[in-house]
Amino acid sequence: MMELQNDTFLRALNREATDYTPVWMMRQAGRYLPEYKATRKDAGSFMDLCRNAQFATDVTLQPLDRYPLLDASILFSDILTIPDAMGLGLSFEAGEGPRFAKVLQEEADIKKLAVPDMSDLQYVFNAVTSIRKALNGRVPLIGFSGSPWTLATYMVEGKGGTDFLNTKKMAYARPELLHHILETNAQTIIQYLNAQIEAGAQAVMIFDSWGGALSHHAYEEFSLNYMKKIIAGLTKQADGRKVPCVMFTKGGGLWLEAQAEAGADALGLDWTVDIGQARSRVGNQVALQGNLDPAILLSTPAAIEKEVARILASYGQGNGHVFNLGHGITQWTDPENAGAFLEAVRKHSLQYHQ
Amino acid sequence: MMELQNDTFLRALNREATDYTPVWMMRQAGRYLPEYKATRKDAGSFMDLCRNAQFATDVTLQPLDRYPLLDASILFSDILTIPDAMGLGLSFEAGEGPRFAKVLQEEADIKKLAVPDMSDLQYVFNAVTSIRKALNGRVPLIGFSGSPWTLATYMVEGKGGTDFLNTKKMAYARPELLHHILETNAQTIIQYLNAQIEAGAQAVMIFDSWGGALSHHAYEEFSLNYMKKIIAGLTKQADGRKVPCVMFTKGGGLWLEAQAEAGADALGLDWTVDIGQARSRVGNQVALQGNLDPAILLSTPAAIEKEVARILASYGQGNGHVFNLGHGITQWTDPENAGAFLEAVRKHSLQYHQ
After folding, report:
1. Model-level pTM greater than 0.90?
2. Residue B258 domain boundaries
3. Is A274 on the interface with B (CB under 8 A)?
4. Number of domains present in the structure of chain A
5. Complex confidence, ipTM
6. Can you name the residues that pair with A141 across neighbouring β-strands?
7. Residue A69 at interface with chain B, using a CB cutoff of 8 Å
8. Which residue from A53, A247, B90, B186 could staple onto A264, CB 3.0 to 4.6 Å apart?
9. Residue A170 contacts by C-beta under 8 Å, 6 or more apart in sequence?
10. Chain B closest CA to A251's CA: distance in Å?
11. For chains A and B, what is the number of CB pairs under 8 angstroms?
12. Is A338 within the bounds of a domain?
């Protein structure tokens, strides 16, 4: 493998000195880019795109070609590959989001759930290897997974949502059934992320997209504890270099102190948290990744620059900040505004690294 | 008017001594009750129900008749009566949620927005008077409004949602336009709530259902500041008694300290906040209302009782807690579980008021 030419992102996750604040954008390979839409059209369905290593490589590299200021790339894939490999039958209906053919609501179905054979996810690891090779050392490659709780919400509800009434009903009425799903997910995710690391991922991120829907107490029991278990089971080194882990609970800003104890190198922050206050709360335990509201990218370059400057000033002097959005970039973003965002981060962050 | 026979709720909002922790449920008159569904069927559409004082009175009193342990009633109405009175054309399509015929996205439309004549909302005040009379002093009657920001999201988007991209785009690209909407909403809400108080409301609540979607900084500018203005403009006394105000930003648990300074007597809490931690953070400035996850009512009486006991223990000894759900009761709730919830609050709260 070609030596890494830009390790700013990895150094920031380890709270080591960098010349500027590194930046990437969640969902940076996506529908806001015309080149992505063209490849997606060639590929067919969304899962066809994920399953084809060449297409997945092409779209992963598209934002890097357009935006030389990006400091990281992320595997193009979906968080629902795991439940799909477990046999639940994933499909994406146009404008409807993901759907599963089977749901886990009956005890008999739940008890049958088991860690899938990683060979059923080989297409993901092939994509990782292909992307890593194509990157040729430009920037690090991030592998990722959904969290056990977040995957469970889709597996129990059968689709996306925001209130997760069936999953929560199970959490309170039949907690042992939900714990079986969560434990199976956690064991699967350990294997899945370690296989991504083996295939070439240089950092990993756990997306707990729906952990913020839980109560204070339930978050620890049904989401955080399983992410801790995953982090403890991760491969810590690859190619003689540490593989850092970012944990991101969207809507979890109230629980940063508990998250900081989970063993992750960095915590993702959504935009509801003031990043300076977050830094005070977690001290030197972890780096922080975030946290511009992606809706701001719909406004103007001047407004974007002002908000970027505000976030950098709030974090303040020193290391340990990876700039990002607080959630994925929306499909309605003008690619020029994304560029203005990246330029603003570079321009305004130099002063905090002297 | 008949003298109030149970003022436990009002005393708790004022952090005065009570014999037990009072309780009510957001959306307690609603689709989980068969008697509500029957009245709704007689009334026709949802707005037909809101516009008819007798029907609104009937459904407001239904949960009180079923559950003698309820310590408050709340006007049956909708938060979108105000934009409807402003001429935006509200309708509810089956299974789709609210829709507006007109949206506020063009500068010319926004500049025409003005405080509506309160006579266009007379049906709400008539309902308040009718309900207050029918209550005959059993429990206090709560009036309410959506917050300026929350109403603005519907007025700009034209419908419900969770990301509010058009509204946020305006907030960052054309803040003066959004501020005109918010200021108009705030001035309208002051008149609207004061007219409810004059018509018989004994407490008022501001529902900032979507304030939690804003960034830390934007929350103060676009939501909290306008709620402060409303609270400053509210009638403080009626019938020789203080009219307390509850402010509730769902998803706003990170910002309780700022909320506690807004002038409200009490803050609503959703279930993501630990109520004991919230109490420590706000000190003796305000009472707290909340905060059981309504999804828990879908489980079992035993699980409900356990969570109720946990929340009461977390709040601890003393006054200033009104028990409630962290959001509206869902239509899928078994009415017996709602009863188990109310009984658990009474049973377990006595020990904290000795």
Report:
1. yes
2. 22-287
3. yes
4. 1
5. 0.95
6. A73
7. no
8. A247
9. A105, A156, A177, A178
10. 8
11. 95
12. no
